[in-house]
Amino acid sequence: MTRRLVLSLILVVGLVASALVGVQRLKVESRNRAVDIVIDYNEVAQVVAGSGKSPVDVLRRLKNAGVTGVAVTEQTMRDLIANGLVIPYGGQRFAVSGEVVSEVTNRLCMILADGRDRVKSTPVAGAVYSYLTIHEDLPMDYIEELPVGFSKQAIEQVRAAGLEVVGRIINYAGATPRAIDSIMADTQALGIRKVVFMGDQVLGYRGATKATALAIRRNDLLFGRIEFAKQKGELDIAKRVPDKMLVVHSITQNEMPTLDAVSIADRFRKAVRERGVRMVYVRMLETASGDLIKANADYISLVAKDIRAAGYKIGGSHPLGEVTAPNYLRALAGAGVGAGSVLLLLTIVDLSTFAFVFWSIAALITCSGLPVVGDIGQKAVALLSAFVFPTLAVLVSVRSAPQLPTSAGAVFIRSLSRLVAAAAITFAGGVLVVGLLSYREYMLRIEQFSGIKVAHVVPILMLALLFAGNVAWSSDVWDAQRRKLFNSIRDLFDNPVLVWQAIGLIVVLVIVGIMVARSGNEAGLEVSTFELKVRSLLDRVMFVRPRTKEFLVGYPLLVLGIAFALRGSRRWAAPFLVLGSIGLASLLNTFCHIHTPLAVSALRTLNGLIAGGVIGLIVYALLRNLPGRENKPS
Question: What is the DSSP letter of 37?
């Protein structure tokens, strides 16, 4: 008892330290609730084309609907040729309109190596154009892809509508650090502060992303990182300038025709609320509506309304602040994980005094020291927490359960209370993870918790081994537990496998495989349209949807397992407890998604526990007589 008390006190100290880190994180999250709604200038131009209205009038109407910014993409030489502002006339010579000749010449001089010597512009007397010559044999395809700056007309129209210009910058082969800095300086000189890179790579990829990051910082720009887009080089820039980064969510043009306005608004709302998105890049609806402007204004208004309803304000997005917490708090959080690890060991094995002191010192020193060393140490201790606490929670939930079938009273209430206790123990592990990993880089998903899928599997495997070895129900000295484990496993393999047992094992493996494949932000299995609609409904009703693996699978099975354990039906209890542990593993993993705001994670956990507990009691009421009638009703 004294041993467990000492370890519990250390665990409490670790939880207090983690809670202090969590409070700082909550403050940072609460100060970062401004969201930009950005639309694409080129898409707006298509809407304007058949409307008979001016671009400024259309932009003003969309601004009233909730738009805060318009993304203007750099023009390329190909764009100017298509618009008739540049006309090739042989070799490396071009006739360039006087409207853009100065900008084009200066940009080409800037972005091409030795550009001042290679690019020459010659005015033509009495003409509205100039001759532009590039003195080197460059492929025409390469020249056409070169970025030559932003359209001044587009920028003027956006600003006339009272909207912010967001620059979309294009990468090109041969971008040098000098050219990158000049491009960024020009962007800043135009009054553009936020940039989102165009295409599948950032400016400077590959080999010059460090120069891009330095130019972003030097020119005080903000860099929009599009989640899930996986632009080449974006992670390197994000790591170098996390304090200059905004998370952007955009729906691809291929996806747009498959979604309606309500689904799109719901998707943006969840991106903002659950993944730290602070710029939503809204694409125009392509619809057969007689009033395309009104249709898009109504749809954007719905997006803005949903974001506001989630507790955020529209406009004025800014980078996320840092969670300032001293290293000793992280070390204490690690010590809490070490204490939990030894508590798990004591739940299985009765240690001698020497063994207890040795393992306690080793665990505490290792787990408190690693988080101070660096991010690898923090991730390792956080992963250990994900292994330890769900396993410990299940074992504690069936302590003192009778060995043989017996009468049991108040099974409903006792099962539910033990489920809550198991969830509380697992929640403690999640709090320690919060204390270990609450840094801005994790909140922006520049760094991530390592081992989401492994963290789901290992507790299940550990519990399966402990229950199969018959050492999970109570602790004993090492030699006794070792003999019991080996003998039980040997007997298990010596017994013939019945058909129903084989079928049951296959079902269990399939369920676990599906749950694991669907875990993480980039799940290995697609979610059906029907389930997406159910999820959306749960989000609307419960504000934050509980995880399916918790309230429909894990917690109901845990309630069944605990109930049968209380009645001494261990053969029935064990498989339910093992499979049900995936609910607790999921609970802890909720707090490993550091990019999700703490308040959302806490509410998701509570909703899952309530819904899962209720479903579990209903299922138990239906199956309570399966292994034998209770002698005493409950």
Answer: E
CA distance 385 to 322: 24
Segment 169-190 shows an average pLDDT of: 94
Residue holding tokens 């010579």? Answer: 93
pLDDT band (50, 70, 90) for residue 49: confident
Residue with tokens 């550009």: 115
**Is there a contact between 70 and 158 (Cβ–Cβ < 8 Å)?**
yes
What pLDDT is recorded for position 499?
58
Q: What are residue 280's DSSP bridge partners?
A: 37, 249
Task: Work out the angle between the directed axes of helices 292-309 and 41-49 (0-180°, nearest 10).
Answer: 140
Beta-bridged to residue 548, according to DSSP, are: none
CA distance 166 to 313: 19
Q: Cα separation of 222 and 202, whole Å? A: 14
**pLDDT at 92 (0 to 100):** 82
Kindly give the pairing relationship between strand 222-226 and strand 194-197: parallel
The model's confidence at residue 265, banded by pLDDT at 50, 70 and 90, is: very high
- DSSP for 143-167, written as a single string: HHH-B----HHHHHHHHHTT-EEEE
- pLDDT for residue 633: 42
Confidence of residue 129 (pLDDT cuts 50, 70, 90): confident
The residue among 184, 175, 187 whose CA lies nearest residue 214 is 184
Extract the tokens encoding 319. 């980078």
SS3 132: strand
Q: Where are the alpha helices (DSSP H) in 50-151?
A: 55-65, 77-82, 101-111, 115-118, 140-145
Which of 3, 5, 4, 14 minimizes the C-alpha distance to 364?
Answer: 14
What is d(CA 196, CA 178) in angstroms, rounded to the nearest whole number?
20
- Using CB atoms within 10 Å of the CB of residue 380, give its burial: 0 to 12 exposed, 13 to 18 middle, 19+ buried: buried
pLDDT at 634: 40
SS3 134: strand
- Residue 185, class by beta-carbon neighbours within 10 Å (0-12 exposed, 13-18 middle, 19+ buried)? middle
Backbone angles phi, psi at 334, to 5 degrees: -60, -40
Contact by Cβ (8 Å): 276, 300: no
Rounded CA separation 418/609 (Å): 12
**Full DSSP string of 219-275:** TT-EEEEETTT--BTHHHHHHH-GGGEEEEEE--TTTGGG--HHHHHHHHHHHHHHH
Distance CA 330, CA 372 (A): 7
Q: pLDDT class for 78, splitting at 50, 70, 90?
A: very high
Tell whether omega for the bond before 206 is within 30 degrees of 0, i.e. cis: yes
The whole-number average pLDDT for the span 569-576 is: 89
As given in the structure block, the two tokens for residue 330 are: 């992280």
Strands (E) in 307-390, as ranges, are 313-314
Average pLDDT over residues 176-202: 95
